[in-house]
Amino acid sequence: MLLSLLEINGSINMIGYALATLGPALGVAWIFASVINGTARQPEARGAMMGTAWIGFAVVEALAIIGIALAFVLS
After folding, report:
1. Using the 8-state DSSP alphabet, how is residue 21 labeled?
2. What is the mean pLDDT of residues 10-20?
3. Where in this chain does the record put each V-ATPase proteolipid subunit C-like domain (predicted)?
4. Number of domains comprising the chain
5. Helices 5-20 and 22-41 sit at what angle, rounded to 10 degrees?
6. What percent of the chain has pLDDT over 90?
7. What is the mean pLDDT of residues 60-72?
């Protein structure tokens, strides 16, 4: 069964998005790994670190949302 050029292009966009999600995934992992490490070193600073972590999490996830929007717009 032959795929049309449009179907192949859409598949390539989704493969590109799948690869692009690795960046935000690693970013979220590093953010919360740093909070866990910081909490282990200085437990009393947990509240301040969690606030900063949630802001960083939101910024990193915004990149993933922009990426999926572009993947659909460009397909």
Report:
1. T
2. 77
3. 16-74
4. 1
5. 10
6. 51
7. 86
